[in-house]
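Write out the 3D structure for:
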Amino acid sequence: MSATFVWRAVLLSLVLTPSLLAQSDPPTSTTTCNLDDGRQVYVRYVPVPANKERIQNGKPLIPGGTAMTLFTEAQLSLGTSTIPIGAYTLYPIPARGNWTLAVSKNVSAAATYDEKQDVAKTAMETVQVEQASDALEVAFAHVGARCTLRIYIGKSASFADFTAK
């Protein structure tokens, strides 16, 4: 009787393991901007392959189905808006010309983009590059109090300046 129980347990674990593994979160990457005073601004994102992510004009880019997350230890300005210290969701929104970057206060894991939740929104400088990136790349360039967010996917490169206050 105990052998039957063991085999049932083994069979059950073999059946359930693939579904449990499929529910795990996708791997993430983090890019950090270290301000001169030691505070940090960082973004967590899913580095999806560029050919697997569908870019739609006017629709927020949500790589791998998971929105990018911004964490800031400093009050920031983006465009004409002020972003308090805290956690936010970033939504790059592709367009034919320049992309737009929206910063949302809704950080719920199941959240969808709702512009009513925006804390800040600004146009991004967008250019086409010669060498396409194989995967979504997010990086910061740091000069003084400014952290320039750089988003590369395919042949698109978009930039937005966050300035620490």
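DSSP finds one helix and ten strands in the chain.
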